[in-house]
Amino acid sequence: MIDSNTRLIALLGDPVAHSVSPAMQNAAFAAAGLNFVYLAFPVPAAAVSGAVAGLRGLGIRGANITIPHKTAVMPFLDRIDDQARRIGAVNVILNDGGRLTGCNTDAPGFLAALKCSGFEPSGKKAVVIGAGGAARAVVFALRGAGASVAIVNRTRETAASLAADTGAAALPMTDAGFSEALAGASLVVNATSIGLSPDIEATPLPAKFLRQGLVVFDIVYRPQQTRLLRDAEAAGCQTIGGLEMLVEQGALAFELWAGQPAPRDVMSGAAAGALA
Ligand code: NDP
């Protein structure tokens, strides 16, 4: 029941109407018996500093930050944790008595989902397709976990810049680029928005490059079964879907706000329900 003790968690982004986080987090708070509520707020770019001041002024316990504000919020926070600073993006804010700390749970969320599937990245070679915001978190996570990484992206400058920041290699998004990137690789991650609904027949990687023994992780979660994952399964690859990362990054955020373990099964069911 919402009462005068209810604590608020806010989602700040633009747009936010499509987000499954309210369904996922509210189900988690209810299952954990916590008097918390999670609400989405569409925040235009010009209102970001005011929205962050509002978190502080109203004593709102925390927030998720989503596209396009993950970098824009950073100057308005009191502290940025090391991981978020290295990545250059904040997706979670924690408010402790008016002191706002920015964190990044996309990177550890990706890594937890990967390790949950039984893949240990240390000493392995990974190919990351994409060099946008999500790809940054994925590449930092993989490099931090001891993997070597080849980045393949449509825009070469963005790939080169991410590669320079992380000690990865950058290759063009061509057949020759994919061939070179995939030589000796055991993991491929799609961190582009290719395959995202409604363009569900698009795939970032031609099926001819898929072979048994590769683990294929598609962080796109709408649809849950992307064309890339279908092609990968047909080629005998192990596959991991974006829902796993979505739930893990949300569970880690829940644990920061609530200070207790997140009910991951409940969150997964609620997110899958909201996506369906
Ligand atoms: P960005 O806009 O920051 O980056 C988009 C990336 O996709 C860029 O690398 C871009 O390449 C590439 N891209 C887009 N369209 C094309 C195309 N037609 N051809 C080739 N490359 C293309 O988005 P994000 O990084 O924030 O998000 C990417 C995806 O990850 C989204 O689908 C999002 O939903 C998903 N995501 C999933 C999460 C999860 O928890 N599972 C968490 C966060 C994101 P270029 O540089 O050339 O423009």
From TrEMBL:
Matches recorded under CDD domains: NAD_bind_Shikimate_DH (cd01065)
InterPro entries xrefs: Aminoacid_DH-like_N_sf (IPR046346), NAD(P)-bd_dom_sf (IPR036291), SDH_C (IPR041121), Shikimate_DH (IPR011342), Shikimate_DH-bd_N (IPR013708), Shikimate_DH_fam (IPR022893), Shikm_DH/Glu-tRNA_Rdtase (IPR006151)
Pathway info: Metabolic intermediate biosynthesis; chorismate biosynthesis; chorismate from D-erythrose 4-phosphate and phosphoenolpyruvate: step 4/7; Aromatic compound metabolism; 3,4-dihydroxybenzoate biosynthesis; 3-dehydroquinate from D-quinate (NAD(+) route)
Gene3D superfamilies according to UniProt: Leucine Dehydrogenase, chain A, domain 1 (3.40.50.10860), NAD(P)-binding Rossmann-like Domain (3.40.50.720)
Q: Which residues cross the membrane?
A: none
> Which annotated residues bind NADP(+)?
82, 130-134, 219, 242
Location of the Shikimate dehydrogenase substrate binding N-terminal domain: 11-93
Care to name a GO molecular-function term for this sequence?
Answer: quinate 3-dehydrogenase (NAD+) activity
Q: What is its EC number?
A: 1.1.1.25
SUPFAM superfamilies this protein is in?
A: Aminoacid dehydrogenase-like, N-terminal domain (SSF53223), NAD(P)-binding Rossmann-fold domains (SSF51735)
Active-site residues? 70 (proton acceptor)
Subunit field text: Homodimer.
- State what protein this is by name: Shikimate dehydrogenase (NADP(+))
Species in which this protein is naturally found: Dehalogenimonas alkenigignens
Q: Which gene encodes it?
A: aroE
